[in-house]
Amino acid sequence: MPGITVSPITPSRPGLGALIDNVDLENLSDADFEALRHALYTHNVVCVKSQAHLTPKGQAELTRRFDPEAMSYGHGKTIDAKRSILHPDLKTVPHQPEVQVIGNGFVPEYEGLENITLKHPHHRTFHTTVIPEDKDLDFTRFYRWHIDAALYGGLQPPLVTSLLAVKVPKGRTQTLLYDDGSNDTLQVPLGTTAFVSGYTMFDNLSAEQKEFVLTSKVEYAPHPYVWISTAKSRPDGLGMVSEGKEVPVDELPPVEKATDVQIQPMAWQNPVTGRFALQIHPSVVRKIHLRDGTVIDDLAKVREMVHDLQRPGIAPPLVYAHDWEEGDCVLFNNHGVLHSVVGAFDKDEVRLFRQCNLAASRPPLAPEVQA
């Protein structure tokens, strides 16, 4: 059998999206895994077709292969917090707790789960403004641009996330609206997952902005997904609107150790290419730490600064919107891309996916200037 082949999905943009052929993810040799890893860190989002036979155990083992010392699901137990905005969106595979089931609609039985109703995140529950209901099936938005990460406690951001499409509704596309005054729009497949490159986001900064990003860090809120559970997002899905609606810090669950509050570099380095990605989770950032020790803690200002850095990187020509087919297994470099749920489904449209990511065994690779 010939070795795996790698084909950029958009040849003019090889750093974001590639198809992988001649590989069986359930039975991956060491040589093929190394080729897959190199492809992942070169193209940052890779899709392997026709992997419907991949078991939850095989998916977990594949995901762990990128970080053999990673043991637990990326959000650990934090996902169980009833006030977390992530709580309604995920079901855990009982016999493989690192693997989550996500999607939309009623599923009578799947991998030991019975009579489950999956709920696709909808911008109406999260954005400060909404698309009118009579236009809901024709138009959509980016729900929330993010990194898969607990961003709290000892749970470091997962290196790689795997997504397997089990059931995919078809038949229509939607027009994605940025609704941020730019008139930007994007035609997308129904229920796409949208990706943008943190490397492109960094490369397109000015020299002054790059210096700022390379030498600054961001502090995330304690219990970040509970903190924003009462706040609302910008219409472009890139961070929150500052209206003072966050859960007050003294009303959050207790912080057991000061180090549970995570401070991460703004720039994360690719372990294969050496490129820097601008990697900030815009929804849950709370403070900015400058090189000279100054801390910017005006939340509205912090959010504006982060949005100004990131917004050019989600422009329509820079977005890769994956057109899912059943059996697609997509792996993405969670230390180099941001992604967003997209789409509005009718109640009868069933979508069933499996997701796996593991809290990393080490922090993101920071620029040497941080040392």
Automatic annotation (TrEMBL):
Organism lineage string: Eukaryota, Fungi, Dikarya, Ascomycota, Pezizomycotina
Coiled-coil segments on the chain, per record: none
Matching Pfam families: TauD (PF02668)
Oxidoreductase recorded as keyword: yes
TauD/TfdA-like domain sequence ranges: 9-354
Swiss-Prot/TrEMBL keywords: Dioxygenase, Iron, Metal-binding, Oxidoreductase
Signal peptide start and end residues: none
Domain of life where this protein originates: Eukaryota
Listed cofactors: Fe(2+)
Recorded family membership: Belongs to the TfdA dioxygenase family.
Annotated GO MF terms: dioxygenase activity; metal ion binding
Name of the protein described by the UniProt record: TauD/TfdA-like domain-containing protein
Organism (species): Cladophialophora immunda
